[in-house]
Structures are given as structure tokens and as C-alpha cells.
Amino acid sequence: MRAITPPARALYDHEMTAGRTAPTAQERWRHLERAHIISQPHPWLHTRNHVVMLALALAQRDRGEALGQVVRIIVAAPGSLSGRYPEGNTGRASAGLTTPMRIPDDLAEIVSPR
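The chain above was modelled as a monomer; its predicted structure follows.
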């Protein structure tokens, strides 16, 4: 397990805060997805991100998303610890559990390679 860099932690904290406070659900999800990309290598942050995603899914009464987040909460820490996570994946239930995705350019500069 590698330590998170200060710039990555600051961006993660910013995205998580925005994920709880943005004015629309669509914006909250976008921020939580970005935080997810940053958090993947870090077991506690990764799991925490999925817990907040679960809370948003429950608030929206989105059963499919909520179920997907429960599954992801269970596998987040082990996936981070073992390095078996799909880089760039947004963490949403609609994204395949093992599907890698393109990391946004501004995050790629912050997220250190495996």
C-alpha cells in the first residue's frame, strides 16, 4: 500500500466535500466519481468514497445504485490492498466492477502510477 501524496489528498478532500455539497445530484455524482479515481489505491479512502456514494444512492432511492455500492464497499479495501482495481473506473454501479476507464487529464497529473 502506498501513501497518498499531499496534492492527491487535497484534491480528494475537495472532491469529497463537493460530492456532499454540490447543488445538484448530477454534480455530486461527478465529484464523487472523481474522488473515486483518486482513492482507488488507498483502502480507507476508497471504501469511504463508496460509503458516501451509497448514502447518495439511498437519498435518491436508487436501488440499483445502492446495491452496486454495497458490493463495492465489500471489495474496495481488498482491491486496493492487492492492487486489483480498474484504473480510472468511476465507481458507479453502471460502470463494470472490473472495467478500466480513461483517467481525466487533470487527475492523471495528480494520480501517481502503480
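DSSP finds five helices and no strands in the chain.
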